C-alpha cells in the first residue's frame, strides 16, 4: 500500500526524547502529572456547566465546548508521548504520523475558530445586550461549535495531504516529540518556496484570520465599554472578557510563533519547548484562568466541593 511515492508502513523515528533513564523517568512523571491536571480541570468545567442550571448560557456552552475540544486535542499526542518515553524504539508509521497530524492540527484549528466564536458572543453581549438573547441562541452556538470543528479538520486534511504528497529524504528522523508541521516539513527533500507558501496560507486561514476577527470584535467592545459612564459598569464589562482575552493571547501567541514563519527559521530545541507549552500548558492554564478569574465558576467550584464534602460526611 502506498500514498503517493511513500509506503504507508514506512516509519519515522523521534529524536527529541531524553536518553538517560533518570531524565526519562522525570519527563514521564512530569508529563503524566500535567496530563492528569488537564483532564481533571477540563472535565470539571464540562461537568460543572452541565450540572449547574445558572451556567446554561451561550458563554458557558462555548467554554464547555472549548474544554471538550482540548481534552480531545491533548489525547491525540500526550498518550503517544508517554508511551514513547517508555519504549526503546520511538517510531511511528507514515499513516500513523499523518493521522496524528490531521487530528492535532484540526482540533488545534478548531480551538482557534471557537475562540473567535466566543469573541463574537462577548461582542453581542456588550455591544447589543438587548438583542443578545435573540441573536446568540443555543442553535447558533451548536452551529458555531460544529462549524469550528468541521472547518478545522477540513483545513487540516488538505494540509496533511499536501505535505505527505511531497518527497521525503532518506533520513526519516523527526526532531520532535510527535508529528507536527514544522519538523515534518524539514524531511521534505524539495526546497521550494511554493511548498512553504502553501503551508503559510493554511496557517493564515486557521490562525491569522480568526485572530483578526477577534481583534476587530474587541475593538468594538472597547469602544462600547468606554461609552459606559459608570466605573463599576466598565469594570464588569471588562471582567467578562478578561479570561477570554488571556486565553486568546496564550493560544495565538504560541501558534503564531510555530506556524506563521518560514521553515528556514525552525530551531528544534526551541520549538520543542514551545510545542510542549501549547500542547500541555494552554489546556492546563485555560481551566485555571476561567475558574480563578470568573466569579460564577469560582462559586460553582465551591458548591461542588461543598456537596462532595457533605456526601462524604454522610
Helix content: over 70%
Instruction: Count helical runs.
Output: 10
**Low-pLDDT segments:** 1-5
Strand order of the largest sheet: 4-3-5
Rg over CA atoms, rounded to whole Å, is 21 Å
What keyword list fits this structure?
3-stranded mixed beta sheet; single chain; 314 residues; 75% helix; 5 strands; mainly alpha; disordered N terminus
Report on the structure:
The strands form 2 sheets. Strands 4-3-5 form a 3-stranded mixed sheet. A two-stranded antiparallel sheet has the order 1-2. Strand 1 (2-3) and strand 2 form a beta hairpin. 35% of the residues are buried. The protein is globular. It has 314 residues and is mainly α. The protein has 10 helices and 5 strands, in the order βββααβαααβααααα. Belongs to the G-protein coupled receptor 1 family.
Concise summary:
By secondary structure, this protein is mostly helical.
Give the arrangement of secondary structure elements.
Blueprint: E1 2-3, E2 6-7, E3 11-14, H1 21-51, H2 58-86, E4 91-93, H3 94-127, H4 132-135, H5 138-163, E5 173-174, H6 181-185, H7 193-226, H8 231-259, H9 268-292, H10 295-313
Parallel strand pairs: 3-5
Antiparallel strand pairs: 1-2, 3-4
Amino acid at each position: 500500500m502506498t500514498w503517493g511515492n511513500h509506503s504507508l508502513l514506512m516509519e519515522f523515528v523521534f529524536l527529541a526524547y531524553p536518553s538517560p533513564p533518570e531524565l526519562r523517568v522525570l519527563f514521564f512523571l512530569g508529563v503524566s502529572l500535567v496530563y492528569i491536571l488537564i483532564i481533571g480541570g477540563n472535565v470539571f468545567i464540562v461537568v460543572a456547566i452541565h450540572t449547574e442550571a445558572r451556567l446554561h448560557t451561550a458563554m458557558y456552552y462555548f467554554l464547555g465546548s472549548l474544554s471538550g475540544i482540548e481534552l480531545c486535542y491533548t489525547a491525540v499526542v500526550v498518550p503517544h508521548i508517554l508511551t514513547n518515553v517508555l519504549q526503546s524504539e520511538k517510531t511511528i508509521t507514515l499513516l500513523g504520523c499523518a493521522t496524528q497530524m490531521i487530528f492535532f492540527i484540526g482540533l488545534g484549528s478548531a480551538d482557534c475558530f471557537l475562540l473567535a466564536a466566543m469573541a463574537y458572543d462577548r461582542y453581542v453581549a456588550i455591544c447589543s445586550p438587548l438583542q443578545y438573547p435573540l441573536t446568540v441562541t443555543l442553535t447558533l452556538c451548536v452551529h458555531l461549535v460544529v462549524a469550528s470543528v468541521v472547518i478545522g479538520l477540513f483545513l487540516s486534511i488538505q494540509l496533511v495531504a499536501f505535505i505527505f504528497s511531497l518527497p521525503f529524504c532518506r533520513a526519516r528522523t523527526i526532531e520532535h516529540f510527535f508529528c507536527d508541521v514544522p519538523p515534518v516539513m524539514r524531511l521534505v527533500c524539495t526546497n521550494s518556496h511554493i511548498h512553504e507558501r502553501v503551508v503559510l496560507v493554511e496557517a493564515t486561514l486557521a490562525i491569522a484570520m480568526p485572530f483578526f476577527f477577534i481583534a476587530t470584535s474587541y475593538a468594538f467592545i472597547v469602544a462600547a465599554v468606554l461609552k459606559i459612564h459608570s466605573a463599576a459598569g466598565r469594570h464588569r464589562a471588562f471582567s467578562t472578557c478578561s479570561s477570554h482575552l488571556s486565553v486568546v493571547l496564550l493560544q495565538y501567541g504560541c501558534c503564531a510563533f510555530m506556524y506563521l514563519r518560514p521553515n528556514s527559521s525552525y530551531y528544534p530545541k526551541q520549538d520543542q519547548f514551545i510545542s510542549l507549552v501549547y500542547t500541555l500548558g494552554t489546556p492546563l492554564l485555560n481551566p485555571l484562568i476561567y475558574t480563578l478569574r470568573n466569579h460564577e465558576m469560582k462559586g460553582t467550584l465551591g458548591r461542588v466541593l461543598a456537596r462532595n464534602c457533605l456526601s462524604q460526611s454522610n
